[in-house]
């Protein structure tokens, strides 16, 4: 069943305090509890994508809390979600996963206050995270305007790298870099975009850069040469190590994009399914310098990858 069919089965919302619901396909739900306060709620979990259990827990935590940052919010607390084959995998591995996730959420200032677990043949781990935001400063995936500049705050390539890691075929340096990327919180980027007054934002995860760009619901031009990639990712792409999620993204999104001179490999790179990726933001040109300055000490500098247009189409160029 397609996502649209699933969402269509939900009852029509008529609560005026639901500021962002499932119909918007935004990063998180937002519910107003006072004139100047709203709760931001999100949930995410997935199967292991790296061999190091502690790193997997930290990645799951950083990925889950990212949705709150993408809305301009501050995380408050988290509840863990766990599926574990208790008769197959030792409890020591589970302890490392839980510890890695909890430590990352302590870094985010969002303690783990509980959770739920089930016995399952395949391990899965993640969190439901609750945060808060001032409704007047909330940022959604709508609001981008023609002429806005598009920035990306982390390099692409985690989908390719994770696939190579699973196959035992990822260079150690790239494995270390992609783990550092996926465990890095989007907190600084989220604070920077709020301070700079961006018009719209989303975090880049499973739908890939193009999929999340489509969710901004505007025309855009992006240049592949400006899109940052992890070192070594192009070599993995040349060996066709794209995950299945990337191929499904491309199949669904390719008809929506004008691929101007990009071959299939380049198109797949822009559709690569990410885990705990960066923020994609649209902001006025006169605020770009402030945004860049606020992130000048970030591990990866924000990259200006294109601009918003008024023709309603997405153009991807070399």
Number of strands: 13
The backbone outline, from C-alpha atoms, is globular
How far apart, in Å, are the first and last alpha carbons?
35 Å
Assembly type of the chains comes to: single chain
Helix and strand composition category: alpha+beta
How many helices? The count is 11
State the helical fraction. Answer: 25-40%
CATH class of the largest domain: Alpha Beta
Please indicate the count of domains: 2
Average pLDDT metric? 95
Over all CA atoms, what is the radius of gyration?
A: 19 Å
Instruction: Please outline the major beta sheet.
Output: 7 strands, mixed
The CATH topology of the largest domain is given as Phosphoribosyl-aminoimidazole Synthetase, Chain A, domain 2
Q: What is the string of SSEs from the N terminus onward?
A: HEEEHEHEEEHHHEHEHHEHEHEE
Please give the order of strands in the largest beta sheet: 8-11-7-12-9-13-10
CATH architecture of the largest domain: Alpha-Beta Complex
**CATH level-four homologous superfamily name of the largest domain:** PurM-like C-terminal domain
């Amino acid at each position: 069943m397609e996502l649209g069919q699933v969402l269509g089965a939900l009852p029509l919302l008529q609560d005026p305090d639901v500021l962002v619901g499932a119909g918007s396909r935004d990063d998180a739900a937002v519910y107003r509890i006072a004139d100047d306060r709203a709760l931001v709620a999100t949930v995410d979990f997935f199967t292991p994508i790296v061999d190091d259990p502690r790193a997997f827990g930290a990645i799951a935590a950083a990925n889950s809390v990212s949705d709150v940052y993408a809305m301009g919010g501050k995380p408050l607390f988290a509840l863990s979600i766990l599926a574990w084959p208790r008769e197959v995998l030792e409890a020591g591995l589970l302890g490392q996963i839980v510890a890695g996730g909890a430590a990352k959420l302590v870094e985010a200032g969002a303690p783990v206050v509980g959770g739920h677990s089930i016995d399952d043949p395949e391990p899965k781990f993640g969190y439901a995270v609750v945060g808060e935001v001032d409704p007047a400063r909330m940022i959604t995936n709508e609001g981008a305007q023609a002429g806005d500049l598009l920035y990306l705050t982390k390099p692409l390539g985690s989908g390719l790298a994770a696939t190579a890691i699973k196959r035992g075929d990822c260079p150690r340096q790239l494995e270390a870099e992609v783990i550092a990327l996926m465990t890095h919180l989007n907190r600084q980027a989220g604070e920077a975009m709020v301070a700079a007054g961006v018009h719209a934002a989303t975090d880049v995860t499973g739908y890939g850069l193009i999929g999340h760009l489509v969710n901004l619901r505007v025309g855009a031009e992006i240049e592949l040469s400006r899109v940052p990639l992890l070192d070594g990712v192009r070599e993995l792409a040349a060996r066709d190590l794209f995950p299945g999620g990337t191929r499904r993204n491309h199949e669904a999104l390719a008809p929506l994009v004008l691929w101007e001179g990009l071959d299939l490999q380049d198109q797949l790179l822009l559709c690569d399914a990410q885990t705990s990726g960066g923020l994609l933001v649209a902001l006025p040109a006169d605020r770009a310098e402030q945004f860049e300055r606020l992130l000048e000490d970030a591990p990866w500098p924000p990259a200006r990858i294109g601009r918003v247009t008024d023709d309603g189409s997405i153009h991807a160029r070399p």
